[in-house]
């Protein structure tokens, strides 16, 4: 699973498709996928699961009111990473 799919998970979560976002998060075992998984559980209201996934992502749990900030932070992180990867491929070509 790639970063573009995690972005899709964020889009689904913002549009109200919790189940679709959860499926994407569950399928991605990376730290970024765990971060998304934690955000999904914040939105769901499941603090215990959210904290578990934040620990797996090696991130500080933002509290149960932090979903909007976390969605934007993860989106920024993913986009910056995609741009860096694209730019490094361009420089190698």
Concise structural overview:
The chain has 93 residues and is mainly alpha-helical. The protein has five helices and no strands. Helix 1 packs parallel to helix 3.
Distance between the termini: 24 Å
Question: Mean pLDDT, nearest integer?
Answer: 95
Q: How many helices?
A: 5
Tally the structural domains: 1
Index terms:
globular, 5 helices, 93 residues
What would you say this structure looks like, in words?
- With 93 residues, this protein is mostly helical.
- The chain has one domain (3-92).
- 77% of the residues lie in helices and 0% in strands.
- It has helices at residues 3-14, 18-27, 31-44, 47-56, 67-92.
- α1 runs parallel beside α3, α1 (3-14) runs antiparallel to α5 and α3 packs antiparallel against α4 (47-56).
SSE layout and pairing:
Elements lengths: L2 H12 L3 H10 L3 H14 L2 H10 L10 H26 L1
Helix pairs in contact: 1-2, 1-3, 1-5, 2-3, 3-4, 3-5
